[in-house]
Amino acid sequence: MTLLFVASAFVLHAGAGSAATAVHGSDHVSVDSCGVGDTISPINIDSQNTVFELDDTSMRLNYSTWHSSNLKLQQDAVGGGIVFEFQGNNGGGRAQVGVRHDDMDEYILRNIRVRTPSEHTFVGRFMPIELQFWHEPTAKSDVLVFLEERRNVRASLDNASEKIALWQEQLQLLLGEDDVTLQRLYSEDTFLEAAKQEANRRGESVLEEVTGLKSQLKHIDTKLQALVSALERPRSLRTVVLSIFIHASEVAGTAHPHMSNLIAFLKSATSETNGHGEFSFLSFKDGPKDVASENLLKAYFYHGMSTGPCRRVSWFIASDPQIAFGRDLIELLDTVAQVDTSVLEKLSNGRASCRSAACLMEEHKLSRHIWWGGAVTTSERAQPALPNTMIRSVAFNVEPFLQIQSNLDSEVLESLSWEYVMFYCAAFFLGSLVMLCTTFAMCSKAFCGS
């Protein structure tokens, strides 16, 4: 199933390093930036202060293996918060980014990180929670698979060589056996017929082996071409992080329905492991649910940098934040605080002695630079403000990137219906006829002119 988070404000962050680390002062929340000029990160997401350019890149999320992998929970020592690591080679699913299939880059979902407050600002404010979905490029696993297939082909070649050697021995037996042995075992005709049948059997086996090797080599050649094509695009080797901003709403009917399931899952996984051991989806059979994608139409993209250490990254940004009920956010924050004891201090900028998120809300100790919910004017802009930069507009894709055939071969023809074959043959015949007539007319004109 395709899990498309209709993230009203999410940032797709591609980079191999960790994102910026939040630094909290006595009266504001700030984030260390990385990079200079057009590549500075993190940034403030505000459509009022950006310059948009059209971009034909699109992205697709396919988290089909989300529920088939256990999670390991631990504290995020780099950026704060907690980290859920997907166990298993397939991770939690795939993300695809590209223009078409032949330049589409694919990434594996490896972990989910819960950051409180957010690392990036939205319209100048920090958000209570930023969920980050970290993906690694499939190029690494593709190379490992390629090497394994190469080893299998090598073993098949050795097997084929042994069969060919046995076949040659059988042929030598047919051609070089002396009369004494023939008279001792069989009559000559009987022996030759039996040896011929055995040689034919071994020959058919060798032919099947060679045919299989031909198919395997063609498959490896195709995968090698795809790997080379991906390696020619440096962006395909970067880590991709999908961040979702979440804030609160207490008004019935305004919260996004799927957020309750997602937050319930995060609370359950955090409480069950409490930072130790693994979480099994068997104990949480109901969610999180896949969500519809009607509202996910476009995102924004720009080139930037990530910290720890600074590396070039790519960001995809959608327009609005996700909305959850305040009580759900408070319960999630308290659950996260059991693993990372610094969460409450970050949310209050060290100004409160509260031991729960509910206490922070009741005593109004939540940082005034965090947009908890309601009107955006109820919170203040973060100081110092994060920079704005040029952002490109891109589309989100709900359908798979279709592979385009680059050439017409026998396998492609076999997959076509007879009507298509007739159409191609007719088009080829008519084209040849037109070319022949044109050539004849040009020759006639030249001959008559001379």
Query: How much is the radius of gyration in Å?
Result: 32 Å
SS content category: alpha+beta
Largest sheet, spatial ordering of strands: 1-13-12-9-8-5-18-15-16
Q: Tell me the CATH architecture of the largest domain.
A: Roll
- Give helix and strand order, one letter per element, not per position: EEEEEEEEEEEEHHHEHEEEEHHHEHH
Q: How many individual helices?
A: 9
* Number of self-contained structural domains: 3
Extended strand count: 18
Keywords: Coiled coil, Membrane, Signal, Transmembrane, Transmembrane helix
Transmembrane segments: 421-443
InterPro entries: CA_dom_sf
Signal peptide: 1-19
What does the model show?
The chain has 450 residues and is α+β, with helices and mostly antiparallel strands. It has 3 domains: 40-138 and 237-397, Roll (Carbonic Anhydrase II), CATH 3.10.200.10; 144-176 and 189-232; 410-440. It has helices at 139-176, 179-185, 188-231, 257-273, 326-339, 343-348, 357-362, 410-415, 418-449, and strands spanning 10-14, 22-24, 29-31, 44-45, 52-62, 71-75, 82-86, 94-98, 105-115, 121-122, 125-126, 129-137, 240-249, 278-279, 298-306, 311-317, 322-325, 391-396. The N and C termini lie far apart (72 Å). Residues 150-177 form a coiled coil. InterPro entries: CA_dom_sf. Residues 1-19 form the signal peptide.
